[in-house]
Structures are given as C-alpha cells and as structure tokens.
Please model this.
Amino acid sequence: MPKTAYVNGRYVPHGEASVHVEDRGFQFADSVYEVIGVINGDFADMRGHLDRLERSLSELRIDMPVRRAVIPFIVRELLRRNRLRNANVYIQITRGAAPRDFAFPKKPVVPTFVMTARPFSFDAKRIEDKGVRVVTLPDRRWARRDIKTTNLLPPVLAKQEALDAGADDAWLVDREGFVTEATASNAWILTKDGVLVTRAPTHDILKGVTRSAILPLLEAEGLYLEERAFTPLEAVEAAEAFSTSATALVTPVVAIDGRTIGDGKAGPLTVKLYKAYRDYVRKGLDGQIGWSA
Ligand SMILES: Cc1ncc(COP(=O)(O)O)c(C=O)c1O
Model:
C-alpha cells in the first residue's frame, strides 16, 4: 500500500488524502491524468508524459497547476517518501472545486492536483510468460479519445466484460468494424508479410507515449510500419500481436476471441521490442529529465 500521496502542494498520509466533494473531477470527470512508470529508479518517458499532460489540459482549457519543471521534483519526493524504485506514478489534475454547474466556473478556480505512487513490479513475470488473451468488444467511448481524461467508465465496463468472459483484456472495435486500441493500451499486429500495423494517432485513439517511443526502435530493426486501422480478423490471422502502455510496456497478445495468434506464445519481434524498450529506459535514451529517482 502506498504510504503518502500528494494533494495540492502537501504530502499527506495516503489513507487521509482527499479532494472536495464539489470537485469537478468527481462530479463530471472534468479532469485529466497521466501514468508514468518508474523502473529500477528510472523514469520511463517523463518528458513524453508531461508533453501529453500539457496537451490534454490545453484541449480542456484547464490551467497547469504548477510549472512543468517542478513536476519531476514532486514525483521524486513522492517516491522517496514511499520508498519506491519500481512504481507507477499517477498524476491527476481536475478543473477544481466549484458549485455544481455544467458550465465552467465563472470565477477562477484553482485546479486540483493529485499524485499517487503505487508499487509495481515490472519484473514479476518474464516477457515470455506475459502473454494475454483478449476479446474484441464494441468501443463505447467518446469522440476525443486523444485526450487522456479520467472519464473511464466505458473501458472499466469493457475490462470487466473481458474478465467475465475469461480473458485478460478487451480490444475495442469501432462502428466500422476496426480495432481502435485496448482498454488502456495501444494495439499492434505484425502481419505474416512482416508489416507492423497500428492505428494512426487521430482523435480515435490515445497517442501512447510508449507507442511513440517504440517507433524509432522499429526503424533500428528495419521494420516497415503501417499506421492504419485493422480488423479483428486481420489480427487473428497475424503472426504476432501485442499492446503497449506505460504499465504494460510491450505485452504479447497470444489469443484474440479464443483464437490463438501464431504459436500462442510471445512472438520474437514482441520480445525484441520489449527488451529494446527496457534498454531505452535504462539507458535514458528518452532524453530523461536529468536524474533517476
Ligand atoms: C486508452 C489508452 N490507450 C493507450 C494507452 C497507452 O498510453 P501510454 O503508452 O502513454 O501509457 C493508454 C494508457 O493508459 C490508454 O489508457
């Protein structure tokens, strides 16, 4: 259990951390978030996550509560107080607390700024044993999935539906019958012709920071990438499938809708990309902000 949380400028015992009952994050999910992995003390893609945090805030016209440069200091202090070197850090910023009204508050309000850090073992399983089984389900989310908001009810319900069906996660399918992404990660396939395919970063998906980090690694492998939509059938017939996110890193997908992908094990390219991403974080190739935790 985390010991300490950060709420609006104060480090407080996790069990006592709270926000106002009129907070617009609580009332309307009028709020954004980021999740940053800390692996053996190294921040994974801090810069990319802070870039996306700024973008999400600006799309919703919420002010950044502190100067951007201060955030890594707060993260580091939170990790120190929780004695964590392997963790997921959650940053949540809401429009703030104001009398309930759909319209933005007329008087300026101070955004609510919360940070928590949870222990997470990135090495609990070997990559070869990390394969997950997914089912495809309708994508019932809103039309601006590029903004990382805390409006997460559709993926919450999809995840539970996937678990109830005996799978580990869901790949979501749009009205035209194409996969958008997983409940909390980006979806990729490697076709039998050796082409890597993932959806283009439009408003239809969240542009994953891990996804962006992987693109140069692909080039190093001489791989050909197609950023386009693909169907569940194409995925089932793929040589490999995997998903990417700050917590999943690169996770092999070994079955879709009960049909085995490849030989049902993590594919060689998936394993290679996973290792390349771990190396990239360890060596600080993400142009890290100065230090390790
Ligand atoms: C819907 C969705 N897509 C993709 C991702 C992957 O993004 P990232 O690689 O930045 O963690 C996430 C992460 O939480 C997500 O929620």
User: Anything to note?
Assistant: The helical segments are 24-28, 46-60, 71-81, 153-164, 209-220, 232-236, 268-282. The domain at 4-119 is CATH 3.30.470.10 (D-amino Acid Aminotransferase; Chain A, domain 1).
